[in-house]
Write a structure and sequence with these properties.
single chain; 440 residues; mainly alpha; Growth Hormone, Chain: A; 0% strand; cell membrane; transmembrane helix; transmembrane; MFS_dom; MFS transporter
Length: 440
C-alpha cells in the first residue's frame, strides 16, 4: 500500500490542500476587502464615492475574468503533467501577485499607472487562483478513502471561508494597530506584503504532498491525452450547461455577502466598518465548521437531496437578507450574516465534487477548471459590480435582492435538470463514465 493510499497519506493531502487554498483565498479576499473599503480613495480619488466604488469593484471583476485563462492553462498541464506541480506554480503566482500589490504606488504618486499596475497584478492573481480551485479539489478527492469522496473534496472548499477570516482578521488587526488614518494612507499594504511569508509556509507543506493516485494510474495506463480540454468538451453542451447553471448562484451570493455587504453597509446603512468585517468573519467561521458536516451527509445520503435542498434554502434567505440589513439594527444584521454563513456551504461544499465527477480522470482537471471558473466569472466576478449598479435612489437594495433571487432560481432549475439528466449512484456520485479499477 502506497503512502497516498493510507488514511494518513490521504489526510495529509486533504490538510495540505486546505492550507494551500486558505492562503490563495487569503490573497484573493484581501483584495476584495480592500476594494470595498480602501481602493476607491487610493487609486480613483478623482471620482465620486459611488463611481470610485464601482471602479474599485471593476478591478475586482478583472481577476475573475482572468480565472478562466488560469483554469485552461493549469488544467491543460494538470491533465498532462500532474496535479501536484501545477498547484505549486499556482500558489507562487498568487503570492507574488499579492505581494506586489502591496508595493504599487497610489494614484497621487504615479497617476494613471497606479490603477493600470493594479489591474495587471489582479490578472496575475486571477490566473493563479484559476489553476488552484479545481486542482486542489481533485488532489484531495482523488486521494480519498472509499466512500468519503465528498468529505475529502470538501477540505479545499473550507479554504474559502478560512481565507476570508484570515484576510479580515489581518486587515482589522493592521487597522487597529496603525490607526485609521495611517492605515488608509499606507498601512493597508502590510497585509498584502505578508503574503510573501504565508506562501513560503504553504509551499513547504504543498511540496510534501504525493501526486494524485488517479493521475498516476492514468499515466501508467497511457491514458494521458494531448488536448484534454477538447476531450472534456465531448461531455456535451447540455450536461455542461446545466452543471454550470447549477453552481453559478452560489458564487454570486457568496461575493455579495463577502464583499458588497461591506461597502453597502458602511456607505448606505451607517454600520461601523469593524462591526461588519467582524460580522462577516463570524459568519465565515460558521461556513468553515459546517462544511465537514454537510459533506459527511452527502457521503451517507447522496448529493442530490443536499444540493437541491441547499439551493432552495439559499433562494429563500436571499429574499430576506437585505431587508434584515436595511432595518439598520445590529441584531438583525448579525442574523442576516449568520444565515448566509450557515446556508452558503450547503451547496458550496459539494459543488466541486459534482463538477469533477462530470469528467473522466484523464481530462478532469481541464473540464472542472472550465466549469468552475466560467461559473465564478458569471456569478461572483460580476456580482459586486452589478449589485452596486442596481442600487436604487437613496441606496435602495430592492434591485439587488431581486437579482440574487433570480440567480438562485436559475441555479435551482439547473440543479433539478442536472440530477434528472444524471441520476446518482448509490454512494451519492453522478458520473459520466466508469472510473478505472481502484478509483474510489
Amino acid at each position: 500500500m502506497s503512502d497516498a493510499d493510507r488514511p494518513t497519506g490521504a489526510s495529509r493531502t486533504a490538510l495540505a490542500t486546505l492550507l494551500g487554498t486558505t492562503l490563495e483565498w487569503y490573497d484573493f479576499f484581501l483584495y476584495g476587502t480592500a476594494a470595498a473599503l480602501i481602493f476607491d480613495k487610493q487609486f480613483f480619488p478623482s471620482l465620486s464615492p459611488a463611481a470610485g466604488t464601482l471602479a474599485a469593484f471593476s478591478t475586482l471583476a478583472v481577476g475573475f475574468v482572468a480565472r478562466p485563462l488560469g483554469g485552461l492553462v493549469f488544467g491543460h498541464f494538470g491533465d498532462r503533467l500532474g496535479r501536484r506541480s501545477t498547484l505549486v506554480v499556482s500558489l507562487v503566482m498568487m503570492g507574488l501577485g499579492s505581494t506586489l500589490i502591496g508595493a504599487v504606488p497610489s494614484y497621487d504618486s504615479i497617476g494613471l499607472w497606479a490603477p493600470v499596475l493594479l489591474v495587471v497584478l489582479r490578472v496575475v492573481q486571477g490566473i493563479g487562483l484559476g489553476g488552484e480551485g479545481a486542482g486542489a479539489t481533485l488532489m484531495s478527492m482523488e486521494h480519498a478513502p472509499e466512500g468519503r469522496r465528498n468529505l475529502y473534496a470538501g477540505f479545499p472548499q473550507m479554504g474559502t471561508p478560512a481565507g476570508l477570516v484570515l484576510a479580515n482578521m489581518v486587515f482589522l488587526a493592521t487597522n487597529s494597530l496603525a490607526g485609521h488614518a495611517t492605515f488608509t494612507a499606507w498601512a493597508w499594504r502590510i497585509p498584502f506584503l505578508l503574503s510573501f511569508v504565508l506562501v513560503g509556509v504553504g509551499l513547504v507543506v504543498r511540496l510534501r504532498v504525493t501526486e494524485s493516485p488517479s493521475f498516476d494510474r492514468a499515466r501508467q495506463e497511457d491514458e494521458v491525452v494531448r488536448f484534454p480540454l477538447a476531450e472534456a468538451l465531448k461531455t456535451g453542451l447540455p450536461r455542461l450547461a446545466v452543471t454550470l447553471l447549477a453552481v453559478v448562484a452560489n458564487s454570486a451570493v457568496a461575493y455579495v455577502f463577502m464583499v458588497f455587504t461591506l461597502s453597502y453597509g458602511t456607505k448606505h446603512l451607517g454600520f461601523d466598518q469593524q462591526f461588519l468585517v467582524l460580522g462577516v468573519s463570524a459568519a465565515a467561521v460558521l461556513w468553515f465548521v459546517s462544511i465537514p458536516l454537510w459533506t459527511a451527509v452527502a457521503d451517507r445520503k447522496g448529493r442530490r437531496t443536499l444540493f437541491i435542498g441547499g439551493s432552495v434554502a439559499i433562494l429563500l434567505w436571499c429574499a430576506v437578507f437585505f431587508p434584515l440589513l436595511d432595518t439598520g439594527g445590529r441584531l438583525p444584521a448579525l442574523l442576516a450574516l449568520a444565515g448566509m454563513g450557515l446556508i452558503i456551504p450547503v451547496t458550496h461544499c459539494v459543488q466541486g465534487a459534482i463538477i469533477a465527477d462530470t469528467f473522466p480522470v484523464r481530462v478532469r482537471y481541464s473540464g472542472t477548471s472550465l466549469v468552475l471558473q466560467v461559473g465564478a466569472v458569471l456569478g461572483g466576478g460580476l456580482a459586486p459590480m452589478i449589485s452596486s449598479a442596481l442600487l436604487g435612489p437613496g441606496g435602495s437594495s430592492t434591485g439587488v435582492t431581486w437579482y440574487l433571487v433570480g440567480m438562485c432560481a436559475l441555479s435551482l432549475v439547473g440543479a433539478v435538470a442536472l440530477f434528472r439528466m444524471v441520476p446518482e449512484s448509490p454512494v451519492g456520485q453522478a458520473r459520466l463514465v466508469p472510473e478505472p479499477a481502484g478509483e474510489a
